[in-house]
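Human: For the file, kindly provide a plain-text protein record giving the amino acid sequence and the backbone structure tokens, at your earliest convenience.
Assistant:
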Amino acid sequence: MTSKDMLDSAENAVKVADANLKVAERQLDLTVAGAWIYDIQNQQSQVTALAKQLASSTALLNKYTLHAPADGPVLAINAAVGSYVSGQGSYDTYTQGYLPVVLMGAPQGYDQVRCYVDEILVHRLPDPKDTHATMFIRGTDKSVPLEFVRTQPYVSPKIELSDQRLERVDVRVLPLLFRFQKPEGFPVYPGQLVDVYIAEK
């Protein structure tokens, strides 16, 4: 003896199995016949949409990422994580001005040092071909011989005392440029203050 519920369940199971069989047969027919053009276009549209989404996400990521504009050593990054950077650069609260976001240097086998000579001592400078200069590293007993490069022939106010453009000083200086081979055994970094002794050979 079989109940009405069991009979209905069995009949429903047959109908479901028959429907699944028909779906499988039609999927087999589509596979044998080849992909439908609308399915191909749909997949192509999805690929195009996902590629544009990837490009959009990459562009947004690049907007918030610092990249060096050229190959070479990165001397300074003047921006912290989460800080605001405008087209003028990164705002520095110490100098109350805008600094470049990334400061780059050229890979060279030598460094340069800029020396400022007081205007009252300019007349005592020797001839460039007879100039002999030595650089002394502050806080050490190290000295490095310098090679004369050129004179910047314009006497200007010395604003490097406090790095303020509106500083009121009466000192005017003549810039001289020297270069030197990077010393071995102790580091010398760009921006470091050194003492330069200039004499005549």
